[in-house]
Write a structure and sequence with these properties.
Order of helices and strands: HEEEEHE
Shape: globular
Largest sheet: 3 strands, antiparallel
Strand order of the largest sheet: 1-2-3
């Protein structure tokens, strides 16, 4: 995540895992918390069966996120790009 943060020139870069209630940050340079409630997680978008990559360019202007506490408060998300990490269960 440090490399990705540097390559994309972003202050925060995360690897997160979702369970039924929470979003857990397994690597989180630039962010001083290790989890959030799942109901505010941008990563929920990556769980859609057709999701390949997800981009939210202006969360403050996006009806899905404009009132999200991660947008209106800390860490003041202004851009989101995410992709699901998929494990091949056949192996």
């Amino acid at each position: 995540t440090n490399l990705a943060s540097s390559v994309f020139d972003v202050p925060i870069c995360l690897v997160s895992l979702l369970d039924s209630d929470r979003q857990w940050f397994k690597s989180h340079p630039g962010l001083n918390c290790s989890s959030t409630c799942r109901n505010v997680a941008f990563c929920n978008l990556t769980q859609h069966p057709d999701a390949d990559r997800v981009t939210v360019i202006h969360p403050l202007q996006d009806a899905r996120f404009k009132d999200n506490p991660l947008v209106t408060g800390y860490p003041r998300i202004r851009f989101y790009a995410g992709a699901p990490l998929i494990v091949d269960k056949a192996k």
